[in-house]
Write a structure and sequence with these properties.
Blueprint lengths: L1 H28 L2 H45 L1
Helix pairs in contact: 1-2
Length: about 80
């Protein structure tokens, strides 16, 4: 999972940069194709942010569950 998280973070940085570049091009070009491209880049970056949040939440839940199991093991031992 940590590898997946690292890959998502790298992709998020790249996609955020692309979305920002597309937004600037859309403002300068002032046409529908550039605006559409900027919107799609922004949506793609947002999808990766949501996936990143899901992975972080899953890792947090797994850590919490691991701690619970370790506590139970200590109580039994």
């Amino acid at each position: 999972m940590r590898g997946e998280l690292a890959a998502l973070e790298e992709q998020m940085r790249h996609l955020a940069d692309d979305a920002e570049d597309s937004a600037v091009r859309a403002m300068v070009a002032d046409n529908t194709a550039a605006t559409r491209e900027a919107r799609e880049a922004r949506e793609h970056a947002e999808a990766y942010r949501r996936q990143h949040a899901r992975v972080v939440a899953e890792m947090d839940e797994l850590t919490r569950r691991q701690d619970e199991l370790l506590d139970q093991l200590v109580e039994l031992g």
